[in-house]
């Protein structure tokens, strides 16, 4: 190979390595190789199935329709709980901005409930709503509400006084003031709160489904993992865990990164 061809190939590889997707794929492949090597060294499928064995279980679960059905159930519940949590968080922070009493109320509620793990509310959810989807939505709202409210409130407090005065001079009050001035200016903090709330909600949902996710006659991913653990299908357990991870990566990459790219990065508010 000539020197010019080598330089061209080197530059191409350097440009390729600059792509976030390429770096992530390489890292994931490296982790998969380490996983497979560790499983072969362990040589006990019951304790640690290999990456290839887990991939076969994942493909089988997709083909027979079991995993897609569980994914659909989990995501349906997650979207409902997450959306309600976001709505309540925006309402609380808007009330906090409107008055000193509202600000003190939000601070007090966050201090009381934010440290409380959502999974600890499962007994209360069972008493109030019984077994089923409503109990799951209740704990999801709790997991999203307080972290997002704190992030949004911090973002609102960080809005420059100049922008606030501009909004007041244009006669903006109440909901219009929040929607047109505070939310755009505090969007980086709000997006961070949305990502944190999503992570909390996803973890809480899987944990809750491990306990009573199939009580309404249909279970989600957490219940799929729990059942296969009871039946000692460890490869299916790992397949369920891989699906949980992949969904988290897809939501982070396709939704939140796209939102950041189209808003705060495009506007020069974030590097």
Task: Briefly summarize what is shown.
By secondary structure, the protein is an all-alpha fold. It has helices spanning 3-17, 20-42, 51-63, 66-98, 100-113, 122-129, 133-157, 161-169, 174-185, 187-212, 221-230, 234-262. 80% of the residues lie in helices and 0% in strands.
Question: If you had to describe this structure to a student in words, what would you say it looks like?
Answer:
The protein is built from 12 helices and no strands. The protein is mainly α and 271 residues long. It has a single domain, classed as MetI-like fold, CATH 1.10.3720. Helix 11 runs antiparallel to helix 12 (234-262).
What structural category arises from helix and sheet content?
Answer: mainly alpha
Number of helices: 12
Q: Beta fraction of the residues?
A: under 5%
Question: What is the count of distinct domains?
Answer: 1
Termini separation (Å)? 40 Å
CATH fold-level label:
MetI-like fold
> Would you identify the regions where 5 or more consecutive residues have pLDDT less than 50?
none
The outline comes out as: flat
- Overall radius of gyration: 23 Å
Number of strands: 0
Helix content: over 70%
Corresponding CATH superfamily = MetI-like
Q: Biggest β-sheet: count, sense, barrel? A: none
CATH architecture: Orthogonal Bundle
What is the CATH C level class, in words? Answer: Mainly Alpha
The SSE order reads HHHHHHHHHHHH
Let me know the average pLDDT: 81
């Amino acid at each position: 190979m000539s020197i010019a061809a080598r330089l061209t190939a080197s530059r191409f590889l350097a440009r390729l390595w600059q792509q976030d997707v390429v770096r992530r794929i390489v890292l994931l492949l490296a982790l998969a190789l380490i996983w497979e090597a560790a499983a072969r060294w362990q040589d006990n499928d019951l304790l640690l199935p290999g990456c290839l064995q887990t991939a076969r279980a994942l493909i089988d679960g997709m083909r027979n329709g079991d995993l897609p059905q569980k994914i659909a159930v989990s995501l349906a519940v997650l979207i409902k709980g997450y959306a309600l949590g976001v709505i309540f968080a925006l309402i609380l922070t808007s009330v906090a901005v409107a008055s000193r009493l509202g600000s003190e109320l939000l601070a007090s509620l966050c201090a009381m409930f934010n440290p409380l793990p959502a999974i600890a509310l499962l007994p209360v959810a069972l008493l109030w709503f019984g077994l089923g989807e409503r109990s799951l939505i209740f704990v999801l709202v709790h997991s999203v509400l307080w972290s997002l409210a704190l992030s949004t409130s911090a973002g609102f407090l960080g809005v420059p006084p100049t922008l606030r005065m501009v909004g007041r001079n244009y006669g903006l009050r109440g909901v219009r003031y929040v929607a047109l001035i505070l939310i755009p200016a505090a969007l980086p903090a709000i997006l961070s709160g949305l990502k944190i709330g999503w992570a909390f909600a996803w973890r809480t949902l899987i944990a809750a489904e491990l306990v009573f996710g199939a009580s309404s006659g249909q279970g989600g991913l957490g219940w799929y993992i729990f059942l296969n653990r009871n039946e000692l299908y460890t490869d299916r357990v790992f397949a369920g865990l891989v699906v949980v991870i992949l969904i988290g990566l897809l939501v982070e990459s396709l939704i939140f990164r796209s939102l950041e790219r189209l808003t705060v990065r495009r506007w020069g508010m974030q590097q």
